[in-house]
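notes to self, project folder thing:

trying the whole complex as one job this time. last attempt i did each chain seperately and stitching them together was a nightmare. two parts in total, labels are on each line so i dont mix them up again. if this works i'll redo the older ones the same way
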Amino acid sequence: DQQVKQNSPSLSVQEGRISILNCDYTNSMFDYFLWYKKYPAEGPTFLISISSIKDKNEDGRFTVFLNKSAKHLSLHIVPSQPGDSAVYFCAASAENSGTYKYIFGTGTRLKVLA
Amino acid sequence: DAGVIQSPRHEVTEMGQEVTLRCKPISGHNSLFWYRQTMMRGLELLIYFNNNVPIDDSGMPEDRFSAKMPNASFSTLKIQPSEPRDSAVYFCASSLDRQETQYFGPGTRLLVL
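result (full assembly):
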């Protein structure tokens, strides 16, 4: 049973436009959410995170939005660049419950077209 | 500063053989995580250690899998005997503490024939 779901396995976006990657979760105990980016033949690298006490966190071109009532988060990349082409994983953890393990989604492959 | 180091980067073995994957976490990090990545299930946590002690091994698929962390700078994940369905990319990650950001190694791509 997937507690973290990324329903779009792939996404193509034109350079300069906005990329929106979506993630849904089922466990209401999750209180910390992260996005990781993965290039081929490399390990995932941390991109941005958000705590459940916030509904938005921004870092440069990357913004994560959290909708707790819908159990949904999204990653916006504006403007998209060819170097952003990678697989993006969202992850969630229930830190206030004392468990710190991340539950990852299956990933979305983003291709930014030049 | 070196990141998380994993070896080997690629492993091809035959069904029934023992496989040992190795990980050196970032110096000073006290939490270590083993993950498996497959197309169907994405990144799954297998086990994690805090201060060299296994905290949660609920993700270990079966008794054929075992993991050890004999000291703060080394961990192994062993599969014995290996099966074709174990073919995947295995990642090791470490963090400064359990609640801190995890840093991943480059992974070991395992193929069991």
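what i see at first glance: Chain B touches chain A through 24 residues (CB under 8 Å).
need to look closer tmrw
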